[in-house]
Amino acid sequence: MGFLTEMSKRGHDRISGVLPPVAKRRLTLADDGVQAARPTSDPSRAASPPTDAAAVAIADPAPLGLAGFALTTFVLSMFNSGLVDKKGLPVVLGLALAYGGGAQLLAGMWEFRKGNTFGATAFSSYGAFWISYWAYVTFFAKDVPAANAGSAVGLFLIAWGVFTAYMWIASFRTTAAVNLVFLLLAITFLLLGIGEAAGSSGVGKLGGWFGLATAVAAWYASFAGVTNFTFGREIVPVRQLRRA
What is the pTM of this model? Predict the structure, then answer.
């Protein structure tokens, strides 16, 4: 291949030497056109996609989403664990609608804007979970016969446990802090769901304790996100998990 290239170059030079200036200029322009049309094999020279300045300007919504989830989960779990009398349970409804629901749903929408599929799916889903919890207790619980309430709520919670379990698998490419949140949350949903379906207060209370642990883990992850950003370096470790 090197021999052919050299012979071609020499032939080109000989032809150029006998051509008048105008023809030489045309030949040069033709060569330039060929080079411009020739595809490059160097991927580093390919044009990179334009940066979305609006998405870059959006602050990280994850600490907000985690905080909304953590606080609402903590308050509800205080009742589920039996540490607080359930007569005060309606206090959770405002949190479920505004903070665990609304704020977390907004965090999910901002994650969509930033292109974070995992964060968008998680925060949008759990925001919707809290809003659906508020709607059920406020509007629909009275329409469910008492004999069927346990199995209905149990199904609702176990289904969320299934969703959380596969999100836990996906979280192995995030951080250890977030991964722990999803592990504890999956266990919480399953215990609460089984407790409701089986009519077992003991299993339900155990689910409440796991819910408290989940809230603490989510608060930690939120605290790390806010603190590490404001200090400009890692103050609170979250441990990045191995990426493929």
Answer: 0.77
